[in-house]
Amino acid sequence: MTGHPLPSGTLTFLFTDIEGSTKLLNALGTDRFHEVLAVHTKTLRAAFADGGTEVRTEGDSLFVVFHSAPKAVRATAAAQRALAAAHFPHDAIVRVRMGMHTGVGTPASAEAGADYVGIDVHRAARIAAIAHGGQVLISSTTAMLAGQDLGEGTTLRDLGEHRLKDLAQPERIYQLVIDSLSNDFPPVRSLDRTPNNLPTQVTTFVGRGAEIRDGLRLLDNTRLLTLTGPGGTGKTRLSLQLAAEAAASFPDGAFWVPLAPISDPDLVPSTIAHALGVHIGGKEEPLQRVLEHVRGKRMLLVLDNFEQILPASSSVSALLASGPDLKVIASSRAPLRISGEQEFPVPPLELPDPERLPSLEALAQSDAVKLFIERARAVKPDFIVTAENAAAVAEICYRLDGLPLAIELAAARVKLLSPQAMLPRLKKGLDLLASSSPDRTDRQRTLRGAIGWSYDLLDDGLKRLFARSGVFNGGAMLEQLESVCGPASEIGGDVLERTSELLDNSLTRQLEAAGEPRFRMLVTIREFAMEKLDASDEAQPIRRRHLAAYLALAEQAGSQVQGNEQRHWLDLLELEHDNMRAALDYAIGAAAVDDASRLTFSLWRFWQSRGYLREGLAWLQRVLALPPGDARLRLRALEAAGGVTYWMGDLGMTEGYYGEAYDRAAALGDDAERAKAAYNLSFVYLLNEAKHGRAKELLEEALTILRKYDDRGAIGRAAWALGAVYGEGWNRSHEDYLKSRQLAQEALGQHRLLGNRFDIAWDLHSTGLAALHLGEFDDAQRDFSEALQMFVDAGDSSGIVLLLSDFSELARTRGQTERLDTLVGAWTAMSKRTGVGLASLWGTTEGRVLATDIPPERGPALERGLAMKTDEAIAYALAPEPAKTM
Q1: Phi, psi torsion values for 518, nearest 5 degrees
Q2: What is the chain's mean pLDDT, rounded?
Q3: Cβ proximity of 414 and 356 under 8 Å
Q4: CA–CA separation, 714 vs 722, rounded Å?
Q5: Does residue 48 contact residue 71 with C-beta atoms inside 8 Å?
Q6: What's the pLDDT at 439?
Q7: Residue 223: helix, strand or coil by DSSP?
């Protein structure tokens, strides 16, 4: 390291290292490798001399900073050219990867050790880590500052946005293209090369180098690695970082499954399924669907916050038994205690000893102190460890047992309190808790003390906001936060401004969802907030506000999930599903049957579209078991239960729910309710040709009433259903198919005027079927294509299965044997994946070709369809083939 003071201000940070250095060392031996390393380092130092300041070397790695981004870029080009021209001893081939990023550099004080910390330094190191030997990668910031001043014979190649292993926001990466050198490299080794849903982190990952190394070593030799420890030890963050570091070894993906919002072990398999993008519905067991999906895949699952659903450990055992290539990282306050588990107790961060303080340079390198500095600089950018505050910083970290969450809470207070002023206040709070809570472990007391100390520093309004915010399960958007936690007069100010104060104090986290801010508490902090809420006289009123807020949101979404913005509203309900569950659970527990009925009715189309049919039925059965409330709201719950069971393919249960609703509507004497109930009940008989007469009676009854009230949307739906009676199956007369098309077109006209995309897609399904039976294949192709695209846009798995089957029937009539067999396989596989049980009835009710109808000699095409992923099947269906003779 240079003996001169390090530069500060806007700097370009450059990291280099030799690709495959360990392999080279093993091949050459230590002495000969050092000879090679000497030539390498001398060559780089010569190239970086113009404008570069060497910060440190570690083995074969160099860390250099430049005041000028153009000089940094030109220096790396010169370095790569010099390396290519250099003669290395022992004919060694040396390829050096380089990465740089420009940001703010604030070196520690001379006493604290001349080095840099901060997010920009980490980002530069991560960019270098994804490069290949001989490649130079630069960030978008550096590229912008360098502009055209790249030096002769060099240009930039845009490699697009990439997620790095720090799990921060994606970074646009550029490659420096250097004339006369090789510039063609494999794809950069970013996190994007592996399918994953690892969440973006808003803060840097500090320290834990030993734990990362130990964790990766343990993961190599076990299939279940459980990170254990009390809340606040950093289990979640460490598990995510381990997954990011290991992701490249799992070509089928690394997936995070957040379990904190759920307390029912039975929901674990479906929660895993949705993290993997596997739809569950119908009569299928969620665990079986997940097992089918992961079987034969080399995949990593991160099961986060397992402690409150430990009985679900049997599901983890089943997953591990599904194949040898699936691995699991679990984070939990207690081990899962299943065969093959490797427990990894997460230690506190490395601590300094306040009784024997090391030099400031060594102190600044302690993981606990590093974290304190990083988080302190987030609120006070000029914060540094000095001779005056070093002892206080060390003792704060020591008093907090090296617990990351506790240290973050303390560091957030640096904006108002110096470490010296903070320490006596913190000691007082921790000592009081130790004497009053002897039943808790030392670390539990320490963490609660840190949270409690931070809480005690809040004013009364912020304390009230903090406790109220704990009611949200999985976080909240601003609109719901305001309606539940306000008004301003009760919390001492505007909800957003006051929530920003909680954010500044690390008592909540801000994320982004659908372009809007979302606020979420860490599990341990939320537990503390809920304790405060439950100890107050506000617990029930706030839970009622929470129910009211999410009931309003559900009803707003429920009225839109079949409209033009269907995908948006379904995605929003997916985002808020944990809050909806919490609201439903509270409503049922409080016997608020009318609110529970309204909520389940508003959610059932979401449950149908997104594969939550089994869970939806369980909620509905709990609601219907409550003493009845408002008669019309009881009808809504029965309607939802009938719809859910219909899509599950259980027509016996459907008839029971719809039949009860029909009888209750008749008893009410309400024509509109009777029309709706008659329409719904007709669907039970639509699928049974022997009962089509009853279906027609019910639909005619509904249409008579609906036309009287001029309810256009409902008229369209009833006309569509009546058209289905005339046009279902292959044994109808020409006149029946014409009648079916006439009614479907009437429905389509009504629904196009109203803009109801769900109904439009179903109408197009029916007009396409009528055209198919009438031999008008091009019209059928057109209508099926438009309908399928609508269902795809909405993410409606039920509709996609239906349209894939429609396309298979079109292939059948066109004589496209191979296409028929492939599409039958595709829709059969998807119906199993999504649990659309209704599909299993189509062979009997409509005479459609099923997988069991395909003879063995045509098996290969069927198997290709069965193996297709959903997007592949959709693309195949929308790409017509020329007709072939059957």
Answers
A1: -135, 135
A2: 85
A3: no
A4: 12
A5: no
A6: 52
A7: coil
CB 739 within 8 A of CB 723: yes
Higher pLDDT, 440 or 757: 757
Strand order through the sheet with 509-513:
476-477, 516-520, 509-513
Tell me: pLDDT of 564 over 90: no
Burial 750-785 (b: 16+ CB within 10 A, else e): bbeeeebbbbbbbbbbbbbbbbbbbebbebbbebbb
The secondary structure of 350-365 as a DSSP string is P---TTS---HHHHHT
Tokens standing for 873? 């099947």
Give dist(CA 642, CA 608) in Å, integer.
Answer: 12
For 393, list phi and psi in degrees, rounded to 5: -60, -45
Distance CA 576, CA 141 (A): 36
DSSP string of 539-566, one letter each residue:
HHHHHHHHHHHHHHHHHHHHTTTTSTTH
pLDDT at 353 over 80: no
Cα distances (angstroms) measured from residue 275 to each of 75, 463, 514, 581: 45, 34, 18, 17
pLDDT tens profile 275-328: 988 877 556 678 888 898 888 889 999 999 898 888 999 999 999 998 889 999
Give which of 329, 310, 328, 332 is closest to 319, Cα–Cα: 328
Task: For residue 570, give Cα distances in angstroms to 286, 554, 573, 577, 871.
Answer: 21, 10, 5, 10, 19
Residue 445 confidence (pLDDT) above 70: no
- Give the number of other Cβ atoms within 10 Å of residue 563's Cβ: 16
Give me the mean pLDDT over the 454-463 stretch. Answer: 88
Res. 114 pLDDT band, cuts 50 70 90: very low
* Residue at 811: amino acid letter: A
Helix/strand number for the chain, H first, E second: 39, 15
Q: Which two tokens stand for residue 318?
A: 């089943």
**Residue 871 CB burial class (10 angstroms; 0-12, 13-18, ≥19):** exposed
pLDDT digits 0-9 by tens, 266-280? 889 989 988 988 877
How would you classify residue 480: left for phi > 0, otherwise alpha for psi between -120 and 50, otherwise beta?
alpha
The H or E element spanning position 173 is: strand 171-178
Helix (H, G, I), strand (E, B) or coil at 206: coil
pLDDT of residue 360: 58
For residue 415, which of 369, 386, 456, 457 has the smallest C-alpha distance? 457
How many Å separate Cα 36 from the centre of its chain? 46
- Cβ burial of 843 (10 Å; 0-12, 13-18, 19+) is middle
Nearest to 594 by CA among 602, 130, 390: 602
Residue 436 has pLDDT above 60, yes or no: no
Residue 157, strand partner residues: 175
Amino acid at 515: G
Q: Which tokens belong to 690?
A: 């022997």
Indicate the pLDDT class of residue 835, thresholds 50, 70 and 90: low
Beta strands 9-18 and 509-513 are unpaired
With b for 16 or more beta-carbon neighbours within 10 A and e for fewer, the 312-323 pattern comes to: bbebbbebbebe
- Report yes or no: 73 and 142 within 8 Å, Cβ to Cβ: yes
User: 676 or 352, which is more confident?
Assistant: 676
Neighbouring-strand partners of residue 13: 65, 101
Residues 6+ apart with CB under 8 A from 860: none
Contact call for residues 409 and 231 (beta carbons, < 8 A): no
d(Cα 304, Cα 701) in Å, to the nearest integer? Answer: 53
- CB contact at 8 A, 123 and 86: no
Token pair for 746 = 């009437």
Does residue 455 surpass a pLDDT of 90?
A: no
Q: What is the DSSP letter of 131?
A: P
Quick check: 691 pLDDT over 90? no
Q: How many CB atoms lie within 10 A of CB 585?
A: 17
Residue positions counted in the chain: 886
